[in-house]
């Protein structure tokens, strides 16, 4: 029976490989041959194989078993739970999300964490970050997280650390897995199915896997914390963009005006008697009424506001399908062919409330609703005029969908040989990675059609409302009625003004690598080892937005195409130098050095080196430390990104209401620039611009550079078997940080500080109108900033001796961040440390800690995991609301500075599993056992809590794993 099953399985695997079209025959590796090679392993952070798994660098290893015990369905969800992770994008990002998920070590950004698969670089996005949703969790054997910089070994991006995902490559048999889960509210359902098959012979083996994961959405309106725009304030913070059509007028002394600048000047006057002359008159059409009759309107009130939050996704849906093949075939006793291939498809989506449309005489030059429109209630009257209007398109939510196809292939040779009684191993191979993505956007507005549809229109003799006038019909145009009540918009009207955008993206990487490692000379502490290698890689990519988007004809921000490529050649050398061994006070003393030369086609060359040591004064204690240089090369979007419109908030020091205008030097500089003394920033100093500014790239960027330091110890007491503790201090300093200077900073440097270099930058891309208003500003990237982070990692493990009631294992992994500080420019002073603070999307926790307890008793197992996030503070956005501002009376040297505390948060996860007699395992689990709510954060971009906390509510799941 068993024999027949194996033959059937083997036949299935080989047939699947043949149909997949991979190059060459591939079989799995059997037991490694040769006593010399048997005990040698390669640990992330070094290319040198060694018999000692402990290196000078701290590495966290997540085994397949540990990954399965989390109950997570993606690699990203697993990695975002580790203590060293900061604030990476995930599937809770709805507005601004794209379905991708990453990892962010040390809060330094995903693009500064290098992601490898089987020690080789994975495909990245245009910004340099890696989407972990392109890697199916079913293929993972283990994950190694290097908590140190490693550019001297791996090249660019390895500043905060390295995540190396090791796949299953020595698997014999079959395994089928089924997963189902959902939140206690009955939503957010997830299902997963995967199949893994492996076979082996005396010359190799082959592993095939297929997986499917589907995750459904959770609506923001389905949770108390996210159902309103601001938690606890109810309808007072709903949008003024009403679901029912409305008309509005700016008024001066009660009379409508189209002169916004005049109205703004009066409204902002410090004299209350003057400011009260400026008013806003708003009317909203009655439910179900005909908007062509002014008698069917009422004055706008709080009840007319719209709760847009409830229409949004809280947790976004996605579907992932993948197949992968990995194999090895021994061509000879010392040379093998290795290949692996993967295809992954992700379909993901985000949803926002229907578009809030407004048009008026001072907005984008639009005339609003034409006085000759059939739907204008003033048409044909003595007071006929163009009307300012607003209407939220509640009939059609904005829906954004991504279809991402990832293809990976690696093929190469590897082997080993002996020369002069020395052992050597080598490998050489080609790698190809690509991401092809199509984004579909539904619910954005074709502004050209909108303006035409709100122009002149009439009721024709056939009873159909048409654009234009009798005898001059605009063919194809469908008149738009913005003054209809919610839910009554005819489909043909929506179809005419809405359009479906299609954006295309591609990221592609091709590389050749060759590595040689082995022994050099016998030293007092053992054999000196080396590794050397060469890499050639070409990166290319593009972002092709829809033609409507590029032309600025969409209701969204305009974006221009991105396209670019670069290539590089790298050489590296690494040495392991064991000086002493088995001596009093020096059980082990070993140094490691490495250097890597990188030559880039776009910016030139860079050299990065490292030095490390490990010292065992006696068998129980290992002391280790490292100093390493690192770099991050500018990404394709950094160098070749097309311009993108952005509506910036800023303060112009030349504005009459700025805090600097009273300074004679500032006033003189502003006057010299031709700015009228009467100029006042249109909205107010510090407010958002009414004109789009332009975010642009910079092809002359140079790499970010870093220096990393670690020092720590590992203590494994012989008197307490199964216990070890490690404590490591770390510090990372990054210079030449690629950043986009804020508008206020740029203007201050020119007009307040008188910095001519900044004036040149500002004047090169700035346009003012005759009133002095900034109507355009080019905002480029530059190597300006500096960031420094520092802290400690503590890991404790204890596997108790087996007892009559089972086996117990405890793992406690924690990160303590002591400092996180930044500089805007090299000459600036350090800003205050941001540890323990929260601003939008950026929680800087002082402590993240995970404690896992495992108990096994025969075929039964139980895992309890506790995840801790320390408290944070944020600036109070609503200082007068007690529930949203815990310290409204806080005063600092700078004056009143109210803060709100986000309480420390602890989650508890539980999994129970049982190995049933027919070689299967049944697991059930609950994540967030006590239904802990995330802390309310008023600075959060959406949902009233940060995306890094769990989706509110208990999450239940069940798994069945059958082995054969």
What's the gist of this structure?
With 964 residues, this protein is mainly β.
Number of E-state strands: 48
What can be said about the biggest beta sheet?
Answer: 22 strands, antiparallel, barrel
Give me the oligomer status: single chain
Question: Shape from CA axes?
Answer: globular
Mean pLDDT: 91
Helix count from the secondary structure assignment: 14
Radius of gyration computed on alpha carbons: 32 Å
Query: Which structural class do the helices and strands define?
Result: mainly beta
Beta percentage is: over 45%
Topology summary:
Blueprint: H1 2-20, H2 35-38, E1 59-63, H3 64-68, H4 75-79, E2 113-117, E3 120-121, E4 140-146, H5 151-154, E5 161-167, E6 173-183, E7 190-201, E8 204-215, E9 218-219, E10 246-252, E11 255-257, H6 260-267, H7 272-275, E12 278-285, E13 297-299, E14 313-315, E15 318-330, E16 335-352, E17 356-359, E18 388-392, E19 398-419, E20 422-445, H8 447-453, E21 457-459, E22 465-469, E23 472-473, H9 491-497, E24 498-523, E25 526-544, H10 547-550, E26 562-583, E27 586-600, E28 604-618, E29 621-632, H11 636-640, E30 644-646, H12 664-672, E31 693-695, E32 704-715, E33 723-739, H13 743-752, H14 756-764, E34 766-768, E35 774-779, E36 782-799, E37 807-823, E38 838-839, E39 842-843, E40 847-857, E41 860-869, E42 872-875, E43 891-892, E44 895-896, E45 899-902, E46 905-916, E47 920-927, E48 955-963
Parallel strand pairs: 2-5, 31-35
Antiparallel strand pairs: 1-4, 2-3, 4-5, 6-7, 6-48, 7-8, 8-15, 9-14, 10-11, 10-12, 10-18, 12-13, 15-16, 16-19, 17-18, 19-20, 20-24, 21-22, 22-23, 24-25, 25-26, 26-27, 27-28, 28-29, 29-32, 30-31, 32-33, 33-36, 34-35, 36-37, 37-40, 38-39, 40-41, 41-46, 42-45, 43-44, 46-47, 47-48
Helix pairs in contact: 13-14
């Amino acid at each position: 029976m068993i024999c027949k099953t194996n033959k059937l399985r083997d036949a299935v695997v080989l047939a699947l490989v043949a149909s997949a079209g991979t190059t060459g025959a591939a079989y799995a590796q059997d037991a490694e041959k040769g006593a010399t090679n048997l005990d040698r392993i390669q640990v992330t952070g070094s290319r040198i194989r060694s018999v000692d798994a402990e290196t000078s660098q701290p590495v966290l290893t997540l085994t397949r078993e540990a990954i399965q015990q989390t109950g997570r369905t993606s690699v990203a969800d697993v990695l975002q739970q580790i203590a060293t992770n900061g604030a990476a994008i995930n599937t809770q990002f709805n507005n601004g999300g794209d379905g991708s998920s990453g990892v962010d070590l040390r809060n330094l950004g995903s693009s500064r964490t290098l992601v490898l698969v089987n020690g080789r670089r994975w495909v990245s996005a245009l910004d340099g970050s890696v989407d972990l949703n392109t890697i199916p969790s079913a293929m993972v054997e283990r994950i190694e997280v290097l908590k140190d910089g490693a550019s001297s070994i791996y090249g660019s991006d390895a500043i905060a650390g390295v995540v190396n995902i090791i796949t299953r490559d020595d698997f014999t048999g079959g395994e089928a897995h089924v997963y189902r889960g959902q939140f206690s509210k009955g939503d957010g359902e997830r299902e997963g199915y995967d199949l893994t098959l492996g076979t082996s012979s005396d010359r190799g083996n082959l592993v095939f896997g297929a997986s499917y994961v589907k995750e459904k959405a959770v609506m923001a309106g389905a949770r108390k914390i996210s159902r309103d725009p601001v938690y606890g304030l109810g309808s007072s913070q709903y949008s003024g963009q009403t679901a029912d059509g409305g008309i509005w007028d700016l008024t001066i002394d009660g009379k409508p005006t189209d002169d916004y600048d005049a109205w703004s000047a009066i409204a902002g006057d410090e004299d209350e008697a003057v400011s009260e002359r400026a008013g806003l008159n708003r009317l909203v059409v009655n439910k179900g009424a005909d908007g062509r009759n002014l008698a069917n309107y009422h004055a706008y009130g709080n009840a007319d506001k719209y709760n847009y939050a409830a229409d949004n996704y809280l947790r976004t849906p996605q579907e992932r399908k993948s197949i992968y093949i990995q194999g090895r075939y021994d061509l000879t006793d010392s040379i093998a062919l290795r290949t692996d291939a993967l295809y992954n498809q992700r379909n993901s989506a985000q949803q926002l409330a229907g578009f809030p449309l407004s048009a008026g005489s001072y907005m984008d030059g639009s005339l609003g609703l034409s006085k000759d429109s059939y739907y204008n209630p003033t048409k044909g009257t003595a007071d006929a005029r163009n009307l300012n209007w607003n209407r939220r398109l509640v009939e059609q939510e904005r829906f954004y969908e991504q279809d991402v196809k990832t293809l990976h292939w690696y093929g190469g040779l590897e082997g080993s040989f002996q020369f002069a009684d020395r052992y050597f191993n080598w490998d050489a191979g080609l790698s190809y990675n690509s991401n092809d993505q199509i984004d579909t956007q539904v619910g954005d507005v074709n502004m050209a059609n909108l303006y035409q549809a709100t122009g002149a229109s009439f009721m024709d003799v056939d009873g159909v409302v048409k654009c234009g006038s009798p005898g001059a019909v605009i063919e194809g145009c469908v008149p738009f009625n913005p003054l209809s009540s919610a839910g009554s918009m005819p489909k043909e009207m929506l179809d005419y003004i809405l359009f479906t955008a299609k954006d295309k993206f591609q990221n592609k990487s091709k590389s050749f690598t060759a590595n040689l490692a082995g022994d050099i000379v016998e030293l007092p502490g053992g054999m000196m080892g080396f590794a050397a290698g060469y890499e050639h890689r070409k990166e290319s990519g593009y972002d092709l937005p829809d033609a409507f988007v590029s032309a600025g004809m969409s209701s969204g921000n305009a974006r221009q195409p991105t396209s670019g490529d670069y290539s590089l050649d790298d050489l590296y050398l690494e040495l392991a130098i064991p000086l002493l061994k088995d001596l009093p006070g020096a059980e082990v003393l070993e140094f490691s050095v490495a250097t890597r030369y990188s030559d880039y086609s776009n910016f030139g060359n860079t050299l990065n080196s490292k030095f490390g040591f490990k010292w065992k004064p006696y068998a129980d204690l290992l002391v280790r430390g490292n100093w390493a240089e690192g770099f991050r090369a500018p990404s394709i979007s950094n160098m070749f990104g097309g311009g993108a419109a952005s509506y910036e908030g800023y303060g112009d020091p030349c504005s009459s209401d700025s805090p600097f205008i009273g300074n004679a030097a500032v006033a003189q500089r502003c006057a010299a620039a031709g700015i009228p003394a009467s100029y006042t920033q249109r909205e107010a100093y510090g407010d958002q611009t009414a004109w789009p500014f332009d975010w642009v790239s910079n092809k002359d960027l140079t790499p970010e550079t870093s220096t990393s330091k670690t020092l720590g110890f590992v203590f494994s007491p012989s008197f307490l078997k199964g216990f070890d503790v490690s404590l490591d201090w770390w510090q990372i300093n990054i210079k030449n940080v690629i950043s986009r200077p804020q508008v206020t900073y740029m203007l201050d440097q020119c007009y307040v500080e008188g910095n001519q270099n900044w004036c040149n930058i500002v004047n090169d891309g700035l346009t003012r109108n005759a009133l002095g208003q900034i109507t355009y500003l080019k905002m480029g990237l530059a190597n300006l900033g500096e960031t420094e982070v520092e802290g400690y990692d503590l890991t404790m493990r204890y596997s108790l001796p087996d007892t009559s009631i089972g086996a117990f294992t405890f793992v406690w992994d924690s990160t303590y961040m002591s400092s996180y500080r930044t500089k805007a420019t090299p000459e600036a002073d350090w800003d205050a440390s941001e540890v323990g603070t929260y601003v939008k999307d950026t929680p800087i926790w002082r402590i993240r800690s995970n404690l896992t307890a495992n108990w096994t008793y025969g075929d039964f197992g139980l895992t309890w995991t506790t995840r801790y996030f320390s408290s944070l503070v944020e600036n109070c956005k609503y200082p007068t609301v007690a529930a949203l501002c815990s310290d409204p009376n806080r005063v600092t040297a700078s004056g009143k500075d109210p803060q709100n505390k986000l309480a420390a948060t602890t989650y508890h996860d539980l999994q129970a599993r049982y190995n049933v007699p027919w070689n299967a395992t049944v697991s059930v689990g609950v994540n967030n056992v006590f239904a802990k709510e995330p802390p309310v954060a008023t600075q959060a971009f959406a949902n009233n809590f940060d995306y890094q906390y769990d989706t509110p509510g208990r999450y239940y799941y069940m798994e069945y794993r059958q082995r054969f």
